[in-house]
Inverse folding.
């Protein structure tokens, strides 16, 4: 019998890769998204539903589809917007997550729900690398709302036995991402006379390619007991932001000056590096190196910006 996965936010950056990953693994992939059909990864989907959650249509879809797995990708992925529009961030994060979990509880109670959270729940950690047991100290509405959604997943598991798992994604990147620092470096290198970046350059992140993100989430969905388990999803390697231009700009065949403005934006953490032992214990190992991933990303960005 063909297994079915329901992916919310399937037209988003990570959702598109998730659809391809599960389709290639032989799953029937049903997607929910807000964009028209032509913007969906249709080759990977058996069905696509365009709707804005919360929606009464969700009940009918889940009753009809009866998914074994639900990958919940919906949510604004912007710390900056969460600061200026916390109400919108709350609605697209917390309200929709509750609606989804409650509908699954009622109409597909055995469905494993994988919630895509964020390392933003850690804020500025006390020490590196960050284990899942480290204290959560969000410093942005985005991080707080992700943490509330994690608590909802724990609530629905502990009270209603709805199987859930929480994935704290660190700095995901790859072709298709048109925001955050890697995009800024590429885009500004191709279109401006100088690359001006925020911060001082000593800030660090743990970058994970979106192909590895999709593979890891499939591993979690198939092998995790989904007892409100929490997994860090990252490479396990710390990279300083000031190193990125040295890796990216040569791939664009450009010679351009890079400046940092010395101001760390409100809500942005200083340093991140993940302990990924929980994930490796399931048998997952990241495969795409940062150097290889940035090379491919730079080629994609050049095609996007310059058309070649």
């Amino acid at each position: 019998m063909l297994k079915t996965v329901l992916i919310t936010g399937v037209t988003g950056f990570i959702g598109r890769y998730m659809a391809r990953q599960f389709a290639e693994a032989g799953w029937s992939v049903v997607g929910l998204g807000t964009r028209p059909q032509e913007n969906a990864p249709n080759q990977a989907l058996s069905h696509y539903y365009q709707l804005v959650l919360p929606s009464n249509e969700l009940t009918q879809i889940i009753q009809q589809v009866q998914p074994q797995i639900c990958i919940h990708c919906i949510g604004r992925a912007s710390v900056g917007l969460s600061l200026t529009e916390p109400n919108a961030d709350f609605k697209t994060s917390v309200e929709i997550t509750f609606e989804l979990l409650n509908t699954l509880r009622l109409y597909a109670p055995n469905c494993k729900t994988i919630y895509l959270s964020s390392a933003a729940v850690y804020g500025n950690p006390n020490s590196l690398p960050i284990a899942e047991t480290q204290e959560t100290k969000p410093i942005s509405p985005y991080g707080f709302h992700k943490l509330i959604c994690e608590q909802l997943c724990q609530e629905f598991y502990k009270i209603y036995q709805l199987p859930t798992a929480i994935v704290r994604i660190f700095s995901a990147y790859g072709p298709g991402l048109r925001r955050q620092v890697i995009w800024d470096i590429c885009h500004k290198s191709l279109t401006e006379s100088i690359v001006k970046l925020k911060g001082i350059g000593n800030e660090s992140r743990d970058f994970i390619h979106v192909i590895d993100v999709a593979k890891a989430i499939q591993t979690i969905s198939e092998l995790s007991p989904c007892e409100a388990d929490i997994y860090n999803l990252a490479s396990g390697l710390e990279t300083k932001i000031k190193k990125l231009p040295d890796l990216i700009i040569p791939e664009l065949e450009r010679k351009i000056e890079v400046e940092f403005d010395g101001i760390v934006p409100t809500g942005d953490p200083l340093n991140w590096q993940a302990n990924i032992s929980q994930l490796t214990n399931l048998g997952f190992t990241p495969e795409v190196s940062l150097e290889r991933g940035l090379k491919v990303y730079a080629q994609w960005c050049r095609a996007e910006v310059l058309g070649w």
In short: The longest strand covers residues 112-118. The mean pLDDT is 96. The two ends are 44 Å apart (CA to CA).
